[in-house]
Amino acid sequence: MLQALLHMRENQHPKQGHELTSKAYPSLNLRLNVNNKQNEVDIVLPGLRYDDIDHFGQPDIWRVFDMMNTVETAAFYNQESFLDYNTLLKQNYSTITKACSVDIKKDFYEVVTPKAPVEVSCKLKRVGNTSFTTVVELCCGGKMKPSVSCKNIHTIINVHENSVEQIPEWWRKRYEIKENAVEDKNHQAMFVNPQEKPMDTFYNEFSVPLSDTDIRHKTRCASYFQYFIENASIASNKQFYRNIQRNFHEFHIKKFNLLYLQPSNWGDGLYSESWEDNKNPLIIHCQISSQKDRIPIWYGQISLFSEITPAGLHKLVLNSG
Question: What superkingdom heads the lineage (predicted)?
Fold first, then answer.
């Protein structure tokens, strides 16, 4: 999905988002549709590609997540930019994705749910002091209800100082949203509280390849999630987990939360550690750290659906009982 955009990630500076989107499908006239207020955007794409399906015939969730983030990035850098992001850039502001919370509907994994076309929409949800929250949603087969919903917290950064900044007053006045108690509650719930790492974890070392970075050679948000998936996949295959001993991929991902702590770059040596939740057998945690100074740079948490293949479910019950 969006093959041409896979090289244009967060913190990059393409000329026009809709032109780059169209290059993903040269025979189609794909455009990002930004509303007049520039606080909403949507695009209709042909559907999931072959590469977006995993070895078990299900949507590869990290690729779907990557595609949704790529659409939002393209919207930021579109000629008619989402949230007037281009003006922020001209004033030496940029953003980093500080945290994400993603919910996936169970029927997204059903074979009868069409995976083409897919519509991706982005909306501004909340404005804080130094950050704003967007919601990116994916709808399948012309259905109005989203199958995947992603909340992103974007923190404002001064490009020259590389420091967190207050949101510019002109931008706040233009986009500030009048909140209610329900919205406040939902926003607070998306903050990620990392679970303390136990002594016994599944450990995996790797180096960051160039393909996993943005134009500034910093590791992309979706790449960290991919490292999490790969760690959990290998851990379950080696029967490291007490509860999930068959195959991690027999379980469908219900929700995941991600928290960015420190940057990493192309070529950096990292290591991932995963472990099962000490209370819920359907939750897995992951921490990614620097090999050089052992400092944690990223944290993630995955919640799984219990409805899996009969053999996998039987194995889970046996080991959690």
Answer: Eukaryota
